Structure formats: structure tokens, C-alpha cells
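Format notes (please read before filing issues)

Several people have asked whether sequences and C-alpha cells are stored in separate files. They are not. Every record keeps both together, in the order shown below: the sequence lines, then the C-alpha cell lines. Line labels are part of the format and must not be stripped during preprocessing.
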Amino acid sequence: MDDQSKPFSDYTVLSGDAKAGSVSKSFMANVFMWMFSALAISAIMAYVFASNMYLMSFLITETGLSMLGWVVMLAPLGFVMLMSFGFNKLSAPAMTGVFLLYAAVNGISFSFILLTYTAGSIVGCFAAASVMFGIMAVLGYTTNTDLTSFGRLMMMGLMGIIIASVINWFLGSERMDYIISIIGIAVFTGLTAYDVQKLKKIGMGIEEEGLPAVGVKKAAVFGALSLYLDFIMIFIYLLRLFGGRRD
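Then the structure lines:
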């Protein structure tokens, strides 16, 4: 198989005893650069739409979400699936473009959050999410413990959250929503450590194999997607627990 079309999951993951060099550190730096760029784009788009009622009128009508509003809400899932299943076929520029477009559309959907919660609670939950994400990222990068089994446990927890969320969509239980939010915070903080360690090992594997720059860039963008999702979900679940709603 051509290295440039290698699936993200097939990138070599070395054992925890292997030592990362300059290539793997550069890979991790690129992962975080793309992640922070996506977060910045999402924040800007959320603010632009939330502060402009003319733009929001395209998303919300007197009867609820408009057709465009539903597209904005559902499109991010489509982008994630496209990047996941299209990793082999998408070129590096296409993968990057889809990721940045995803971040922009996701930001537009976040404008509803800015209109729902108070500015103080949004800032507070964002700061808390940043601290939690940062601590777990450092832990995942520096620990010598193999987090593979822990990651599988977190993935099982994620599946449980998805099933419980679907059930609660019909039940509308506030207590169940509260429990889901608590578990969600625990799962995605745990996944942050696991994902960072996995990406570090992938970077070490890339250095060992000497893969082409195109494949490395695609892997970095996809890795940024994983961490972006971890951070966003921690933030959203914190808001659901502690966010103060506007009157």
C-alpha cells in the first residue's frame, strides 16, 4: 500500500519505550497547531453569527430552526464521517480544507450556545475545559503507562453516552441529562490523555518509517480533529452542568 494512502488507523504505533525525536515532536506541534486553528475559527464564526441577528435570521425562524439551521446543526457529523472514511482518498489539501470548513460550520452551530448561556458562564466553562484538557494532554504525553486498555474503556463509555443520549431524547429526563453530562466529562477528559499518547506514538512511528510529507500532514490534521472533538465535548458537557442560561 502506498504510504500516502495509508489509513490513519494503520500508522505504526510504537511501544511506550520508544523515544520521540525531532520529527515526532514536530508532528505533535502540527497537530496542536491545527487544533487551535480550528478552535479559533469556530470561536470567530460563533461570535459573528451570535452578534448579528440578520445572519441568525437565516438559521432561526418564528417556528424554529430553518432548513439552513438544520443543515448547520447536522453537517458537522457529515464532515467527521467524510474525514474518517475518506482518509485514504482525500488529498492533504482536501483533508485540510474539509477540516477547516468543519470548524467553521461547527462554529456557526455554536452561535446557539452563545445565545442560550450567559457570557460569564461560557467564559468560565471554556477556561475550565482548557485547564482540564491541558492537564490530561500533558499527562497523556508524559506518562510511561500504556493507556491502550484505558482508551478502550473510555470508548465503551462513549458508546454508553450515545445510547443513553438517544434514549433520553425521548424521555427528556433532566436527572438523566445531568448524569450523562458528568459521565461525558469523565469520558472525554480520559480520551484526551489516550488520544495524545496515541498521537505521540504515531509521531514516533512516522519518524521510524520516514513517511512522505503528504501522509504526515493528513495524519496531523486527523489527529487535530480527535483533540478538537475531545475539547469541544468537555466544554459542552461543562456548560450543560454549570452554564447559566439567559433570561
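For reference, the curators noted about this record: The two ends are 57 Å apart (CA to CA). The mean pLDDT is 85.
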